[in-house]
DNA sequence: CGGAGTGTTGATATTCCTCAACGCGTGTGG
DNA sequence: CCACACGCGTTGAGGAATATCAACACTCCG
């Protein structure tokens, strides 16, 4: 469990006490590795543990009648992927990996114990579900009010901000292991239209997205196109939240 | 505070102990009445209390550059409107009334006390934010995957299900105090297109929506058009959640 | 070597938006 | 009491954005 331990220490930097890190680490039952493009849980499943993504990329989605999916969330390392399964017990959507991923499994009864014994930590877990909801809200905005370029730009800005927060952006570039089809399923567009829109963004010198990564040439312009404001990610409060008040 | 008391008793029917109802009631600082179409809190505001809608209708939204809003949620009596403000401290969107509304105000420090002293109740509050997120997810699906008729149908189905859960549907009809512009802002459509789509739904004998109410003539067909499945509302678990395990 | 998945491009169809006009009801001030 | 403005719903005509259908190139991998 050493890797998990390092991971938590790094993510908790200064905000969690030694005891709290120990409690969180103790809540992890095991770490599993799933291959790329694999469904972990399905809509309707009764869940008894929640998952913390340690390495890789995951997503959550709903299936539509026409066979396409609507992505609901994109997950980067450090995200609690389905903390909402705790309390709701049953999933209302599917969860899957995008690339091979390492995932820490946290049984719900251990979260019960945290709720009981470590209220500060409990509030952090709650907070992670609230951040999730805040992101959902921006996805609603993106789909309801923006055109194709705006939706893609907004999505890419969000992922960049979150990757930046975990130190995974180098010179404006970061891993984005999504096909154009995937991006379409995140943004409510066909893959064909995603293709044309990405080409435009590339030709206009805004961003080059493809081959598993995103290179943002003009972040300001990208944010303008996507009407993006990172406020909703509450990044100023640090990865584990501003729980001092 | 008698009205609040009755309200809580009715909503908590059998699921909350006498003590728990007392705690919840004690958390309410006061009840305020706001006129129709009034913003209660704004994006970026620091919030120190959360609001429980007792009577009326409210919504939450984000503003777009073009001056239009994107609605994020529609609230009926019994909803905690911004429980997420607790823990997140700052709002990432606006909250407003749609019609004149009575709202119970719950200071955050009293929620702290509930977290500390009444974990079962705390879990219920958490649960309300998770239900909120589940609804957000369906809104994402609606906007990303459905056409105009589907979006409106899905939205109306959701409101019907929630109104039903609080006993406010009579003969397939319920209050829906929204203009076509509002519906457009909920569904990512222009009011003109909402108008044409509502006409079609009416002419096809599916639903008649307007003049402040919705009359659902063919619920099955409406659900089919909107690819609606009420699972995500977790209504089987009762208004306060299935917290027995 | 063949096949599947992905990215790319073109031609055409459809949905939805934009702009514009008008009716109707309601409230309001003269 | 009338005149008028305003918000809302309604309808029409034309245009823009996006989907659909189809074909083909490229890469990776069995």
Automatic annotation (TrEMBL), chains A, B:
GO BP term, pick one: regulation of DNA-templated transcription
Domain HTH crp-type residues, every copy: 146-220
Superkingdom assignment: Bacteria
InterPro entries: cNMP-bd_dom (IPR000595), cNMP-bd_dom_sf (IPR018490), HTH_CRP (IPR012318), RmlC-like_jellyroll (IPR014710), WH-like_DNA-bd_sf (IPR036388), WH_DNA-bd_sf (IPR036390)
Cross-referenced PROSITE patterns: HTH_CRP_2 (PS51063)
GO molecular function, one term: kinase activity
SUPFAM superfamilies assigned: cAMP-binding domain-like, Winged helix' DNA-binding domain
Keywords: DNA-binding, Kinase, Transcription, Transcription regulation, Transferase
Identification of the protein by name: cAMP-binding domain of CRP or a regulatory subunit of cAMP-dependent protein kinases
Gene source species: Sphingomonas palmae
